[in-house]
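Task: sequence in, structure out. Protein: Zinc finger protein 860-like.
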Amino acid sequence: MSTSGFFCSVCAKTYANHSNLRAHVKLHHPDQLNEIAPNKIKYKCEICSESFNNKILFNKHHKVHTSGLKCPLCEVIDVKPALIEHFTLVHNVDINIEHHDFKTIEEFNSWKKQIEEENTVFFPKRHGTFQIC
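Result:
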């Protein structure tokens, strides 16, 4: 940072804040973004090392590690990774985690309906985001 703002070392333009400098570098010098205007990491999860710039998103993420979930088969309450291990060790239930990418919400809903019908199960409704890849 120069004394008068955030400075682009390639073309000598100065910006009032870091985000404006990053926008400039992304547009005009994208191959040098991390050298000229690296992303500011304000919050880092001590448990999994994931980084966040936004405190609200960090706090929401941190709850994943610290909020207890109740085992539906007994009274145990634990964080998600420990609860998955609990299912295996105590109840002899293996949890398989799968990752799926869907191009549309319709494609997801079709897959979800098929799984629910084939296995007589229902997915819990959760708040979240849907991102088209």
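The chain has a mean pLDDT of 82.
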